[in-house]
Amino acid sequence: MEIWINPACSKCRSAISVLDAEGAEYTVRRYLEDVPGEEEIRAVLERLGLEPWDITRTQEEAARELGLKEWARDASTRDRWITALAEHPKLIQRPIITADDGTALVARTEDAVQEALSRSKG
Length: 122
Known about the structure:
Pfam families: ArsC. With 122 residues, the chain is α+β, with helices and mostly antiparallel strands. It contains five helices and four strands; from the N terminus they run βαβαααββα. The chain has a single domain, classed as 3-Layer(aba) Sandwich (Glutaredoxin).
């Protein structure tokens, strides 16, 4: 199991606390430093079952500068969204946990973290 975090994010710190309290084995990825590339973002989106606009933090300054709120949300713009996430990782919603069963979750609540744990325990 891997968790993508921004250490400054309270939701990320909360998710780590839940994982630690449960004694989970996991790897921390500080995705602002270890930035995922476009192919990795595509793979995580597939695991999440989501589209790139579903995991985009549209309130970030970079989102405003790019005009993301005006971008279409369809197959024709999917690659553009993924490129934006790779070039501006701060736009990626967090934390994301990749579970051992091949799925992933945006783990912004304790319930979502628990779901990721249950998927990793098999």
